[in-house]
């Protein structure tokens, strides 16, 4: 999107991150939304569709029940999409933070819990204007929401989902450690506008 919109490598501008947040901040909401949709879609497609390809082989009637119930395969497929996003082989292992791709994957696994967490993300984002803070809070809340759904409200949630929810939350929070340090020191970047950071981008290109 950086190449299409401005002829730039987005990793050389702003935070240097190749994710939707930096794209949003440097190129504006249109480019940011497109990148976010791509990130969300690849996580969802991996978990919801790619995970099921193996069930086309062998005795198909015997696999019908597994088609809808094998959470572990959805987790494995989605996890590879998230890891590939965070540490892409073709970009020297320097990718995005994995939040949106993880959200897409989790929609492919269990949509209600991630929908609740998405509401939390939006509330924190609107109230604070910090994408990083919203991501950290939402990630922290995700395993808590899953546990409450299972043990407080009686939803059928596989044990592997609970373990995985905790692992995803921990991984995303660890990936945000530099953001946490900036938040604590009061110099984290806020989302101030839906427009591209033209002045900053032009200044960077001339220096």
Can you tell me the number of structural domains? Answer: 1
State the shape.
globular
Largest sheet geometry: none
Average pLDDT over all residues: 80
Order of helices and strands: HHHHHHHHHHH
Tell me the Rg in angstroms: 18 Å
In whole angstroms, the N-to-C terminal distance is: 22 Å
Q: DSSP helix count?
A: 11
- The percentage of residues in β strands lies in under 5%
Percent helix, as a range, is: 55-70%
Which regions are unreliable across 5 or more consecutive residues at pLDDT < 50? Answer: 60-69, 203-207
Class inferred from helices and paired strands: mainly alpha
Looking at this protein, list some descriptive labels.
single chain, 207 residues, mainly alpha, 70% helix, disordered C terminus
Task: Describe the protein.
- With 207 residues, this protein is mainly α.
- The chain has one domain.
- It has 11 helices and no strands.
- The chain has helices at residues 2-6, 20-27, 29-48, 60-69, 71-86, 99-109, 111-128, 131-151, 159-175, 177-185, 198-206.
- Helix 3 (29-48) packs parallel to helix 6 and helix 7 runs antiparallel to helix 8 (131-151).
- The protein starts with a helix and ends with a helix.
